[in-house]
């Protein structure tokens, strides 16, 4: 029976801040003083390499989950567990959308001697020090769900730019090419930035649709709701909401429904979750770009085994996305 170590923590909400992104973002390390930079480089040993497990020895796979309160991530973990081999161990830790906690979690898993690290970054830039720590320990890194901005062994993720395009095109058609749209984004995560860019590029094909507001939020239903309410107060003639994921889209649904504007305001999200499908079937959401989280998880673990075995792997593995709307939501 597979061993499974699951450390669940309460979700710690990261403070929202506007940049091209939001969330608690770790500070980049300060540059070395000029005189230090000019000094002769000291001789250093090559980074330690984690030895490949002996035949029959259990493999430890470290898994850093961005937010396990989201059903999407639970499905990813299910996919990972389905692909883990008998006797091997998945060490699964929930960052609770806290970038600082994620760094500490990864360091703890390094100390536990994992053979490979699977990471879905809370912040694609703030994760840098953790990647450097894995490199120093000789532990290969595989990103899943969201890309990293650093060189790693492989990335397994949905084609998120395509996902944004799909819901953008659906929005453009539903509004018959004209109207006002607001966006709730989380651009510190590369995955969410790709979705936002795909949506914007699709909307650009409809010059009479105006993006009147773009706000960075902490992803989630409860966090999206008050932001959507404020936007509706500022733009009572709003025609559409783009949300970075389905939980945030459902927060928009709650705000729009409370304002009795479901007929006027179209809402799109990304994930293709069961809750979003139900909202679409009820006419409360326009569409969602579906992902396949179970396949993302299983493919990430399958790739991890190949990396540990020294096999060549694709550096960018794309899992297809497709549109869920009223025609197929049921």
Secondary structure: elements and pairs:
Blueprint: E1 3-7, H1 34-38, E2 60-65, H2 71-83, E3 89-94, H3 99-111, E4 116-119, H4 128-136, E5 141-144, E6 154-158, H5 160-174, E7 178-185, H6 190-203, E8 208-216, H7 221-234, E9 240-243, H8 246-258, E10 266-271, H9 274-281, E11 287-290, H10 293-308, E12 316-319, E13 322-324
Parallel strand pairs: 1-3, 2-3, 2-4, 4-5, 5-6, 6-12, 7-8, 7-9, 9-10, 10-11
Antiparallel strand pairs: 11-13
Which labels suit this protein?
330 residues; alpha/beta; 6-stranded mixed β-sheet; 10 helices; elongated
Radius of gyration: 21 Å
Helix content percent band: 25-40%
The total strand number stands at 13
User: How is the main sheet built?
Assistant: 7 strands, parallel
Secondary structure class reads alpha/beta
What form results from the Cα inertia axes? elongated
Ranges where pLDDT stays below 50 over 5 or more residues in a row are: 1-51
Q: Could you report the average pLDDT, rounded to the nearest whole number?
A: 86
Our estimate of the beta-strand percent is: 15-25%
Taking the alpha carbons of the first and last residues, their distance comes to: 36 Å
Cross-sheet strand order for the largest sheet: 1-3-2-4-5-6-12
Give the helices and strands as they follow along the chain. Answer: EHEHEHEHEEHEHEHEHEHEHEE
Count the DSSP helices: 10
